[in-house]
Write a structure and sequence with these properties.
Blueprint: E1 2-7, E2 27-28, E3 31-32, H1 33-44, E4 48-53, H2 57-67, E5 73-77, H3 86-92, H4 94-97, E6 102-106, E7 109-111, H5 113-122, E8 126-130, E9 141-144, E10 150-154, E11 164-172, H6 174-190, H7 199-207, E12 213-216, E13 222-224, H8 228-239, E14 245-248, E15 251-254
Parallel strand pairs: 1-4, 1-6, 4-5, 8-12
Antiparallel strand pairs: 2-3, 6-11, 7-13, 8-11, 9-10, 9-11, 14-15
Helix pairs in contact: 1-5, 3-6, 6-7
């Protein structure tokens, strides 16, 4: 199964921590974000990885190569990372995943493996939604009907009508993948919308008739690390949990 992890941004809101380290390599609870992400995905059965890089991309390559020798991974470099957004980074991965089912993750999400297990059990096409806790105006929010079919997604969605916050983990079928990359190509290549979030393409395919389901992850842990405050809060939360080792295909992985 394929996984796409977007880790191109330079994370200006995390300075000084991100001055010389990509955000996805910052340790949270003693484990770098990307290492935790890949480990969790391997545990669930994902074995092919496409990582979108940009800022300090050589450090990402070196880290992944050290942690996971022999991993089936393709790197896709967004050389315009400073002036584009994650829709552009996702569009760049098109040739590697357009006709395949895949899981999509932002490279700055720290999450329990149970979140991915929940999505896989539900099956595509779906996205993880956190309904527990405070939802801010700046969060990507989701509204859905009474069967959890997503009606609207984006920061513009009113808090009062939201099912919850999209945490940045989505699972797509091959058919939806094709529609998604078609929408991304139209928006990025044809319209020049290089600085928007990929949720705009999600909304387009929903409006055109695709069905995505919101999966409420309840109290399962999932948080984006956008700011220094986010980093400190996640460190505090995860420091209370013991690290543990697992083995995947003979590899010893700490998480």
């Amino acid at each position: 199964m394929k996984a796409v992890i977007l880790a191109a941004g330079c994370a200006t809101r995390l300075r000084p921590y991100s001055d010389d380290t990509p955000k996805t390599l910052l340790p949270v609870g003693g484990v770098p974000i990307l290492r935790r992400t890949i480990t969790n995905l391997l545990r669930v059965g994902f074995d092919q990885f496409v990582i979108g890089t940009g800022y300090l991309e050589h450090m990402v390559r070196e880290a992944v190569g050290t942690w996971f020798p022999g991993l089936d991974v393709t790197y896709v470099i967004n050389r315009e990372y400073a002036s584009t957004n994650n829709a552009y980074s996702l569009w760049l991965t098109r040739e590697h995943v357009e006709h395949s089912g895949f899981i999509l993750l932002d490279g700055d999400v720290v999450f329990d493996v149970s979140v991915v297990e929940e999505l896989v059990e539900r099956g595509p096409d779906c996205l993880a939604v956190r309904s527990v806790g405070e939802i801010g105006l700046e969060e990507v929010k989701v509204t859905a009907d009474n069967e959890d079919r997503v009606l609207a997604i984006g920061k513009h969605v009113p808090v009062r009508s939201a099912m919850g916050e999209s945490v940045g983990i989505e699972l797509f079928s091959a058919a939806s993948s094709k529609r998604l990359f078609g929408a991304l190509h139209h928006r990025v290549s044809d319209q020049g919308l290089v600085n928007e979030y990929y949720e705009a393409a999600f909304q387009q395919i929903i409006d055109e008739g695709s069905t995505l389901y919101g999966v409420d992850i309840g109290s399962m842990y999932a948080t984006e690390i956008d700011t220094v405050e986010d980093l400190m809060a996640a460190n505090t939360r995860l420091a209370q949990r013991p690290a543990f080792d697992i083995r995947v295909d003979g590899l010893r992985l700490a998480v």
